[in-house]
Amino acid sequence: MKEMKKKRKYTKRVKQVMSSALEVQIDGSHYKDMPIQPVEFTMQNNLSFLAGCVIKRVSRCDKKNGGDDWLVDLDKAKHEIDLMIEFKLRK
């Protein structure tokens, strides 16, 4: 019984921390302004680190720094996709 209460308390605390952390963005608002942030989508779908990076870059390419860095973000996403392919082929 104590273990169950402890787990419930911990789960509640984790949810509080996560919701408040998602409300904070350092430098800009290109993620906070999205209905679903890339990190939420990545975590809820159990995606890999590189898949999360691709989603992050593609979703922000027209928003970050007023959309001026779109090509940089897309080039980085392309590179991360190439890395994903390379790692999958190694298996």
Architecture overview:
The protein has helices at 2-22, 38-44, 49-60, 70-90. It is an all-alpha fold. The protein has one domain (2-90). The longest helix has 21 residues, at 2-22. The chain starts with a helix and ends with a helix. The mean pLDDT is 84.
Question: What is this structure's SSE topology?
Answer:
Blueprint: H1 2-22, H2 38-44, H3 49-60, H4 70-90
Helix pairs in contact: 2-3, 3-4
* CA-CA gap between termini: 44 Å
Report helical residue fraction: 55-70%
- The run of helices and strands is HHHH
Shape: flat
* Structural category: mainly alpha
Low-confidence parts lasting 5 or more residues at pLDDT below 50? none
Q: What is the domain total for the residues?
A: 1
What count of helical segments does DSSP give?
4
Sheet-strand content, in percent, reads under 5%
Give the integer mean of the pLDDT values. Answer: 84
The total count of strands amounts to: 0
Could you describe the largest sheet, including whether it forms a barrel?
A: none
Radius of gyration: 17 Å
